[in-house]
Design brief:
Helix content of chain A: 40-55%
Oligomer: homotrimer
Mean pLDDT of chain A: 96
Low-confidence stretches of chain A: none
Largest interface: A-B, 34 and 33 residues
Largest sheet of chain A: 9 strands, mixed
Radius of gyration of chain A: 16 Å
Order of helices and strands of chain A: EHEHEHEHEHEHHEEEHHH
CATH topology of chain A: UDP-N-acetylmuramoyl-L-alanine:D-glutamate ligase
Number of domains of chain A: 1
Strand content of chain A: 5-15%
């Protein structure tokens, strides 16, 4: 069993700076609930979001984008088709891409099947909560919907197996985040429980991971850096005024993030 | 004619607490404009939102969800099919469900027809503005779009007839809210005109009703409690700084809501 | 070559007031990222937004709406069909309509083709960034996605040609905005770079233009007035607290906008 190493927060700084410098173009095929929040999160960290979804356009756009995000939150037959086309193209053009397998599990067989198909197109990173990572690796999970009920510790082994099997990086996020390539494991602590009470924080973290891996070759550390940034922002954002202010403050803090953290 | 009874605001407290305690899983099939706001409203009151829309998934998910919301705001042929599948399943599994008949009326015949079909699947609650309730009961209304132009008083009789005919609860919201099962009528006063100038307050109130009826058997009082909570929040939320701040403050106040109100 | 005239800001006031007085009903067929923001922007300036998209409903609704907005940001085959139906109907019923040709260009051929088809239905106004206006007029642009990379100066000639060819008004927005009917050219200066770092400011400006031309016959000045209002709001909105607060403050300032500016 590999040792878990606490990700050194100062290591995140150059990754954060690279996104701002390079302004990567992130092709997002994501769910209907979080499109606006995701676009604003990407703009706040200095990336350029582009939600391009037409069957006629996704392949061409994957070819010009810096990276691709696929999030299956509100999947249906049509979006499934687009996701599969985009993922296949990304594999072919070696465009880095992130899979966010929202709410996969026993209650939702269709998306779980599509997620398994998407896995065959070699995602660069998979980011999910513990229930999703457990379900994706074929184990039992406790959740029925998008909100996770399992601890990230309980999914760590599943994450490692998944990372090895698909030669990818798996990030499980929750009370403690773990990021692994099947060999090394980084843990990221901190954050705030309020992050689970605003919709789209996980989904937009996946988009941030897409931006971070678009601008660096060290994908393990890039993914951990994105996780660190979101956790830190969750700590910095004002929680006293309620969840509306908190959601807005996440975007604020991402846009103001500096090296002193 | 039944007497109108002012809903006693302290009666709302146990309903509000039950949502927080039980954290119901709310299956939302709603319109594209308010998905994010609705999810954040549900999270703010302590519920767990899940926007599941695929034809392949809606029936399975209705069976595991605590309740279902169907909002026809941006309906098209595909979403209509999903709504009908979900409503039929909800009737079969006796999953409580809320119908929000956005913008039904003479100008929009397609949705009015689908709404009539949805009615046959026994919604637990129908929540709309006066124009929508009038149109749904076959009477003439003054609105062309989603913003209501009729007074809730003018739709009270239509609400009662609708409630009796479909053995359901009807909530008409506006300057004064009325909630009726065809026999009893609760009125809820207060609120603020600014609530009509932020998109999604009505739609997310329907989602709140879904959460409230998922956690209580007294659906009439549960529905009135949700209406009370939204009106109170409209009063508490800061209006001086403009409508952007006000929209955010609605979520704030829902998340901070306490027994002193 | 026609002279460029700085748009006199006090000329905007009656246009802004007319929208508040007449409360036009704006039929929006827009992209999935900005639906909520667009609806709140329209409500904030006093208009009534209605997102009606079903193939079965768009034509009937164009006939009752005060004006129509078509934004191709997240276009696919189905929405393309709806847009073409709505635009054809608008031409027939002489309903004023605005085309926002998001991200047209060499990288995205499908939408560029649909945009060309939409042009044949005589939009009242075309609003885009410089890259989009260049691409729409058949010239080379530098952008791959929705974020423009060309200066508005570089697209001024393309705007004039486009306006003449389609007998329409073209607004190019960016560091300096230009509004032209092919003969007269207004420039609008000011604004803030932060406007480019929040998603939907351009898209909702197009919606504002739809509201302004719905309530005035002087479409050139009405379009320039909408551009002025957005630029001014960008100056007034708080930027110090970060981009989340800034996005909210745009809605705030639109709703509080008064004659003193």
């Amino acid at each position: 069993m590999s040792a878990i190493k606490l990700f050194p927060s100062h290591d995140a700084i150059p990754f954060i700076e690279q996104v701002r410098l390079q302004r990567p173009l992130i092709h997002c095929i994501t769910n209907d609930v979080v499109q606006n929040f995701t676009a604003n999160v990407l703009l706040a960290i200095g990336a350029s979001p582009a939600m391009v979804v037409a069957e006629q356009e996704v392949e061409d756009f994957v070819a010009v984008a810096s990276s691709l995000l696929i999030n299956i939150g509100t999947i249906d037959s049509q979006s499934a088709k687009r996701m599969l086309l985009a993922a296949a193209k990304a594999k072919q053009t070696q465009t880095p891409w992130v899979l966010d397998p929202v709410a996969v599990g026993a209650a939702l067989k269709y998306r779980t099947e599509i997620a398994q198909q998407l896995l065959t197109f070699s995602p660069s990173v998979i980011r999910g909560n513990a229930s999703e990572i457990l379900a994706l690796s074929g184990q039992q999970s406790s959740s029925k919907g998008p909100d996770g009920l399992d601890s990230t510790d309980s999914a760590l082994n599943a994450a490692k197996l998944l990372a090895e099997k698909y030669r990818t990086i798996v990030a499980i996020t929750g009370e403690i985040d773990y990021v692994t390539d099947g060999k090394q494991i980084y843990s990221i602590v901190g954050g705030d429980i309020a992050l689970t009470r605003v919709t789209g924080t996980g989904c937009s973290l996946s988009a941030m991971v897409a931006a971070f891996i678009a601008t660096s070759k060290d994908r393990l550390a890039a993914t951990a850096s994105a996780c660190f940034m979101m956790k830190k922002v969750g700590e910095l954002a004002n929680k006293q005024s309620g969840l509306g202010t908190f959601a807005m403050a996440i975007i604020d803090q991402l846009s103001l993030f500096n090296q002193n953290h």
